[in-house]
């Protein structure tokens, strides 16, 4: 599993595998906890993607960004460290947006983060969606809440998306082999898209 310890203002240090041109993957974690089922799902997605293409990954835990983020009502009001965090998302090659389901949708702090992102900064940027919830009945949050959010930004939301329910985990560790399989198949189907859209590099 990938390390999940966040440092600084809710940012996990970037990790880069040796060799190859790495995709800069930034995770926006909408969970109130830095150790959660949502982060467990993200770890599996990143670990699987890392076997297919070189990546360097960092994670932003929105609930750890502090008052310089939570009290800002517009971009000009954020503190310098939060501004740098937002720019990290805007400059990423690939965004992995992950959130738990609360009352049928993503948490308010997750939405607040994207309220501060420049309206055009994510245009054509590849975005992978991931979510967790108590039962499979919440799985449509991917299509009915998360996908429309990134459609507003005109982002390139990847056709595959990943959901796991509480029963798929032991604590925060994703154990269900069916979910692991869906992640592997889904990423295999879109890895060429991610590679070429994010870096312009092809296998030719």
TrEMBL record:
UniProt KW keywords: Flavoprotein, FMN, Oxidoreductase
Domain annotation NADPH-dependent FMN reductase-like: ranges: 24-165
Protein name: NAD(P)H-dependent oxidoreductase
